[in-house]
Amino acid sequence: MTKHLTISSLFLATIIAFGACTKDKPGSVIDPDDEFELPYNQEGVTANKKFVEDEGRSVVQKLEALPDAEAIKALNTLADLNMPEVDITVSAIARIGRQPNKVAEIGRTLTTVAEADVTLSRAYGIYEYNHQRDDWDKTASSDKLELRFPAFANSQTNNAVLTIAYTSNGQVIDIDGESVELPTAVNASLKVAGQEVLKLASSYAYESDGLPKNIDVALTIGDYKATLLAEKGGTTKAEVKFSVNGEELVAASLEAETRNYNLDTFEDEDNLEDLVGASNASIRLGNIQLLGFFDVRKFINALPNLEYPDYPDYNDYFTGNESWGSAEYAAAEAAYDKAYREYQTQFEAVDKQLMEAEVDALKKYSKFAAVNLSTEKRIASVDFQLYEDKYCYDGFCDVYYNYEPVLVFGDESRVSFEDFADTGFDRLISDLEDLIEKFD
């Protein structure tokens, strides 16, 4: 049995990735019962595109002070000091200083810490940067990992201190034959001249087999804060937020109906419909909220049990003894071409039926919309449409079917995602490029 899954794969991966973790009960900005029934605005494609760009630019502008944060400057310096690779958590924090896209790197840091399964105590020690040797001197420590280094380039004083420590209740799991202790908390602090400029606080709880069931991670850099909350249960929930001075700029949440699972069933992806059911997702950027509902189980079960035909085997028609240009070669070639055309006809029939079934199932068991939070009106909803790709040669055309999401606006305009994003965002792109340059 072949079940063709294309549009669902990334969504499912997100559910499963977050499902391996999870804490508090994330909620939508708009009541979930009403979110897909909000009235459309009637502004059309051009006006709504301008609103999306303006909101994006507003968020970028509120990030402009991040490159000047003391923590970022110190981490930039640390990244240039041949830092010892002592622990994955330290490396994740230090990478914030190396990567030009700091917001994305902060997100990756949260994910890295959320997946923490390291024995940090093995790396405990105090590392002091030696300016004369351009290297690090280590002294022993039984309770922390600490890096002491200059906060600014060309400084001769180690006035920055990055300290990381963890606690554990002794629970261990086996990873590739190695016994690894699971942390119940990982905490970090970066101080410059005695003032704390970065703080990482995280806590964890696990099932008996080591599968995380609660995760709470918070990273604060000056006025900026990023958080990740996750909870495993009959409903798996996850939420990521990024804010400045308490104002939420970017947020993403996911809630999925999940049947009881353990580490073994979680790692078995053959029967996703047995694991994941109805799911809700939300992504917020400024005053734009993207909403999604997807019943994974019903979607998968609605697909027909069809098999694609087997591709004709060249060796079934050619023995290798035929001479080029001979009657035997021509006969074998004609037989193979006939078999290929029959294969392609069958393939196209199955392909079309499967793609039509996926589109129909998506229309029945999913909903997606973009909402203007300031007016509480829908910017657009999402529909799906089938399309064909043709490859023509020697008088024949092979047809392959697929489908794409389409934005549907209040004035009934229909625009593909690709076409919507292709033009009209020059100012936002310029703002992003300017912000990235500030980090360099």
How does this model look, in words?
With 440 residues, this protein is of the alpha+beta class. Helix content is 31%, strand content 34%. The chain is built from ten helices and 18 strands. The strands form two sheets. It has a 16-stranded mixed beta sheet, with helices on both faces. Strands 5-6 form a two-stranded antiparallel ribbon. A hairpin with a 4-residue loop joins strand 1 and strand 2. Helix 2 packs parallel to helix 10 and helix 4 packs antiparallel against helix 5. It is extended, with a radius of gyration of 27 Å. The two termini are 52 Å apart.
Q: What is the element layout, followed by pairings?
A:
Elements: H1 8-19, H2 44-62, H3 70-79, H4 88-98, H5 102-114, E1 125-130, E2 135-139, E3 145-149, E4 160-167, E5 172-175, E6 178-181, E7 185-192, E8 195-206, E9 212-221, E10 224-231, E11 235-244, E12 247-258, H6 263-267, E13 276-285, E14 288-295, H7 296-301, H8 327-365, E15 366-372, E16 377-393, E17 396-409, E18 414-416, H9 417-422, H10 426-439
Parallel strand pairs: 1-3
Antiparallel strand pairs: 1-2, 3-4, 4-7, 5-6, 7-8, 8-9, 9-10, 10-11, 11-12, 12-13, 13-14, 14-15, 15-16, 16-17, 17-18
Supply database-style keywords.
440 residues; alpha+beta; 16-stranded mixed β-sheet; two-stranded antiparallel ribbon; 10 helices; 18 strands; disordered N terminus
